[in-house]
Amino acid sequence: MKIITERLKAAIHNIDSKYFVRNERDFAYEIYYQLRLLNLQESVELICETGKNRFNNGDTVFKDKKLNKIGKDLIAPENICRVPDILIHYYDNDNRKQQLLGIEIKKHPTISQIHKAFAKLAAYNKGNLRYQKSILFLFDFDKNKLSEIRSITELLKNHVDVWIIKPNKEVDCLGGFR
Question: Where is pLDDT greater, at 79 or 143?
């Protein structure tokens, strides 16, 4: 996992500054492209923007008391698209899939959008899919919202990391969330 997160930081560093003013989908595709250029292991599969199905109501993660503290209306399965912007899987010798990393990207997000993104990523980690790690990328981010993010992540510590991506290609990995 450490190699993948290092490659992810390198991919962000390689992104042209023009993508920092575009929409989040363009930014996601550019990260995807830059990751592909870095040649991840042959057994690592990278997926970007697959179908946007809704979560299954039967996934027990949506009954989680910590998630419900965020706001039942925001984290209801019917309100959350199932697939984050980028997914990374690992296939071992037995062709068994290991879920590695789910990444959600938000440009200039509202607190409501951040809540939904946390709920989605927590569902990837704590729910039936069992991803090892999730990262929320925030760019064009209002630093005044930082205290609200910290309170949310306290509920979901050990499940979602937050990276603040800056136009100068720096990445702040906010501490205390892992």
Answer: 143
